[in-house]
Specification:
Length: 111
Amino acid sequence: MKGYKTGGRRPGSKNKVPPAIKAIALAMVPDANKTLRSLLKGAPDAVRVRCIEIVYERAFGKPRQEIEHSGALGVYDPSKLTTDELRTVIAILERASADGADGVQEGTGEA
């Protein structure tokens, strides 16, 4: 079904970093901090602030952003509906569409 995602991680799940890679990265942090400090000594304030933001985002995570959602909410499985129920849904959507056109070709179930 086009547009329907299958497999992969669940939304909101965290990335999994292998322990060996994490250990290597953690061992490099002190040297990276020294290098970053030396590079930032002569940097403009805007660059310094952005670097601090990046460090904070990595340490504490990015702040959540509010979004305005104007589409459908949820995921639907039309295979659970009877033919009559599907016809009812199509009729409702035809009436609710902004331009009055349903975009569905009769008998095919495809737009």
